Hints:
Belongs to the GMC oxidoreductase family. FAD binds at residues 10-11, 29-30, 75, 189, 452, 463-464. This is Glucose-methanol-choline oxidoreductase N-terminal domain-containing protein. There is one protein chain. This protein is α/β, with parallel strands linked by helices. It has one domain: 3-Layer(bba) Sandwich (FAD/NAD(P)-binding domain). It is built from eleven helices and 25 strands. Strand 14 (250-251), helix 8 (253-258) and strand 15 (265-266) form a beta-alpha-beta unit.
Amino acid sequence: YDYIIVGGGTTGSPLAATLSTKYKVLVLERGASPYGNPNISRIENFGAILADVGPQSPLQVFFSSEGVRNRRARVLGGGSSVNAGIYSHAEQSFISALGLNPCLVDQSYRWVESVVASIPNQLGPYQRAFRASLLQAGITPDNNATYDHLVGTKTFGSIFDQSGSRRPASNLFVYANPSNIKVLLHATVLRVLFSQARSGLSPRTYGVEFKDELGRIRKAFLSHPGKESSEVILCAGAIASPQLLMLSGIGPGNHLRSKGIKVIKDFPEVGKHMADNPAISLVVPSPSYVEVSTSLSVGITSFGSYIEAGSGGVRGPNATFVSEKVNGPASTGELYLATTNVDDDPVVSFNYFQEPRDLQVCIGGVDAIEKALLSNAYKPFRYDNQSLPSGGTVSFPSRRNSSALAINNTLADYCKRKVVTLYHFHGGCLVNKVVDSSFKVIGIRNLRVLDGSVFHVSPGTNPQATLMMLGRYAIIFSLPSTEIFDRVSTTQICWKSHNRSRSKRVKVSSHHATIQE
């Protein structure tokens, strides 16, 4: 194969579809297909996915060293097959920090949106009330409905369509050339293969070793490992990509040797700077019936907290839940191998709230949630005896008679005791530390990493839109002189200017990729 992509997830699917228009591509996905599973495909069953902990579950549970329960995707489409469906762009500062071309970014986002995303036509009663409560809590201005990341309150996009059906990233295989792509499911990559480096030359990647569903060990090879247009690309996610690099001999030398792994490249930065956005989730029983909804509106505060809410579904027709996420974050940890078995979770620490800034943002976010719950807009959907994080109830909130310092101290303790995750962990293979600006592994030929592991921070309110965009963008950026994108008439214009421009959309092909169990 010209390209071997490890992981058919949120980034791997659009990446493979794009490459297949010209190159022979193999996608190796360790999970199953999301299609035909109503717990994945239907919005009303969303919570059922989180409760599934069986060996065939599309989610693999792991715990950080702090004891926070977390999950990582194990299914074609990756996180886009199991998440709450939020689709929102990265902030402009994130795009600038990565040095991305805004014109190509815009073009790539819209290529994705033509297939898997849309902005809801209307909001249900609960989502309308929640949205109004954010505005009454002072999270302004009202930015209406938009994909853009803007301070204030907005309605954002979703990968659930108007009928409640999920559109995972694997739907982007509609763009693929079916004669050039093969997708293998239940195919777990064990390690990346390297040829012996000659004196003065970097190691060269020539293939991967993987096991199939029956446990048979197999190998897949690059057709032209000496050429630039022939690579192994890791899209396995922020946990598995640094883990795979280490299992393949790329990582901290002393640690690898302690596990009996031959060191291909002593690379201390692999596995460092792991981060997960601290979050708080508050269950608010409603005296009124609520519609089935995942997060459709968000309050983006000026101080770095994002506030969202969902309702109904498997939690019950009178359940609502309001969440707060700390952006960034500033606190980071690390990842290292527990064993040499790829199926075993590595040891991961995120050091939640190690940096005081993260705790202050969480305090501000929970305070904003309380103000929203106390607003007139939220009144039809909460009981007067609803308890509040700062103490007391909606009818008799402790904050009325407490100093700002006392409220902050109470909320700080609440944040630390109640911290959870929204599954936006990232890091481990950072840009300019492990990979270069084109996401190629520094010092290794024909190997690239493209997923959340390259991020310094989590983009926007939810990273999936940006991850899908990058699956398209990275190849346009790396191969601008080829004719792989001859269907996009304005691609070359983006190389002449970094001004944002609107361009024609790519027509959706009627063909699909061949997916093999």
